[in-house]
Specification:
Length: about 525
């Protein structure tokens, strides 16, 4: 019964699931399944998706800048600021069905409004999930991704003409209301909301340095899906199949995450996962010219399955960064999403124009496949650090070839500088002395997160709050918040009690790696 109760939906998960399902009817797989097919001409769909995609990505970058320079509004859940343009965008789409003379203008306006509104709603949901405890926020997010396809498929049971009107008049107010209701329990006194980014620019700069590579890796899947989306737009019937497959893949991804997480803890490195999947993705693109249009739908379904998983991980990683570093959730999610959706737009534009500007004698699908593979390889190279990483002197020693002139004299060994020594000290092994071993046991016994265990070890060694903040590149307020949570989990009240608890663990109980 406890297991069943753990996976029961609540206001947060059901609200977000409804938002994802409704969003999929206009901005996900490449079609409008609940609008008449006769209106979905090539120019109409391209105009809508181009304006929607560009405004959507730009809204993420604008949110990052806004959170940095004007953090005050990001403390509030301004649902009306997202709901009003989202509602008007759907009104434009419905009006285009009846006003065919200005349908193209309405498609552009509707795309821009829905792009801005959906970005605002995503920001609000991310802020809500990040404000929860990790286990609660991650559970709600994963459950929502599992329930969203069920709601989406249920929409097909409603007459299509009615569904188009229900989205702005009933469904949108429902998921907007769920945000308002759920936000009442949000603790706005957390460091992520109280922090003033301009007072700690080094912390935010360090966050960008630490997370840009993950954003590029997820962006590679976004680029791939953008290409497929452009192909689907040209043929609405294929696009509808892609929509159904993408939602089915989200259902599988949500259930898979929930089932795996229930059995054991998950630790996923986004960059490493991308390196593993990269050969399969480019191989799938190279097969596109050989199998033709019949291959597009299953290929798109598989790509969207990966993309769904990547987007779930993106939200979880951004929420984790907000909690652990005390970073404004809108800033880090806007930065992540801006890169990801910018690359999605690049893929969409490639899919649209690559086929039309194909060199003489080259089939459109062949041209699209070649452009896609080239750009994916370029993104992969940038995501792995580019020339800076490739030419780094810290590459594996076994990979280096060294040619030494026979007349060369031995070089004098240099003593490491203070800066080098400090850098080495920062990169100590995880387990290297008695206290470190004991802290590892405490972490396992009480279920601490990696960041909590890291701060706990510094506290056990007597390190001051100011010094911990300096070493971890976070604010002192964030350190204090983590300390309170650590004390609560360990049921201690002072630093000395924490040190005594750590000392009570026998380090011989830890197996050496």
């Amino acid at each position: 019964m406890r297991t069943l109760a753990r996976y029961m939906p609540n206001t947060r998960s059901l609200g977000y699931a409804l938002f994802l399902a409704v969003n999929a009817t206009a901005v996900w797989g490449g079609v409008f399944p609940f609008l008449p097919m006769e209106i979905q001409t090539g120019s109409f769909t391209v105009a809508f998706f181009l304006s929607q995609s560009l405004v959507f990505a730009a809204s993420y970058f604008a949110s990052t800048l806004g959170a940095y320079f004007f953090p005050g509004p990001t403390r509030k859940f301004l649902v009306w600021a997202a709901g009003a343009p989202y509602f008007l965008g759907w009104c434009c789409l419905i009006a285009a069905v009846y006003l065919r003379a200005v349908a193209l203008d309405l498609a552009i306006a509707g795309g821009a409004l829905i792009g801005f509104g959906s970005a605002g709603f995503y920001m609000a949901w991310q802020r809500l999930f990040a404000s929860q405890k990790p286990a609660v926020g991650n559970r709600d997010l994963i459950l929502a991704c599992a329930f969203a396809p069920v709601i989406y498929f249920a929409l097909y049971l409603i007459p299509a003409a009615v569904t188009a009107f229900l989205i702005p008049s009933v469904f949108m107010p429902l998921f907007a209301l769920s945000i308002l209701v759920a936000s009442r329990t949000t603790d706005l006194d957390q460091p992520m909301f109280e922090d003033l980014p301009r007072e700690h620019p080094t912390i935010y700069l360090q966050a960008i340095k630490d997370y840009w590579r993950s954003a590029f890796c997820i962006g590679a899947f976004a680029l791939s899906c953008g290409v497929v989306r452009a192909i689907a737009v040209e043929t609405p019937k294929i696009g509808e199949t892609v929509n159904l497959l993408s939602m089915a893949s989200m259902l599988v991804a949500g259930i898979g995450f929930a089932a795996t997480w229930h059995k054991k803890s998950l630790k996923i490195n986004v960059s490493s996962a991308f390196r593993v999947l990269f050969p399969f993705v480019i191989t799938a693109f190279l097969l596109l010219p050989f199998f033709g249009s019949s291959y597009v739908a299953p290929f798109a379904g598989a790509l969207y399955a990966l993309y769904d998983c990547a987007l779930i991980l993106m939200m979880i990683q951004c929420a984790q960064a907000s909690r652990e570093r005390g970073i404004n959730p809108v800033f880090i999610y806007g930065f992540f999403g801006g890169i990801v959706y910018m690359l999605h737009d690049a893929g969409y534009l490639i899919g649209i124009f690559a086929g039309t500007i194909a060199p003489s004698g080259l089939a459109p699908l062949t041209s699209i496949a070649l452009f896609s593979v080239y750009l994916l390889a370029l993104v992969y190279f940038i995501g792995q650090g580019g020339f800076k990483q490739a030419l780094s002197p810290n590459r594996a020693r076994a990979e280096r070839i060294e040619l030494i002139p026979s007349a060369a004299t031995p070089a004098k060994r240099r003593r490491p500088s203070a800066g080098m020594a400090h850098g080495v000290a920062r990169k100590r092994p995880e387990i290297y002395d008695r206290i470190s071993k004991q802290c590892a046991l405490v972490k396992h016994h009480y279920g601490l997160s990696d960041r909590e265990a890291e701060i706990m070890e510094y506290l056990a060694r007597g390190t001051t709050v100011a010094r911990i903040a300096e070493l971890l590149a976070i604010s002192e307020n964030t350190v204090r918040t983590h300390s309170k949570r650590i004390y609560a989990k360990l049921d201690v009240h002072r630093k000395q009690e924490l040190a005594d608890l750590v000392d009570s663990f026998d380090p011989r109980g830890l197996k050496q790696p």
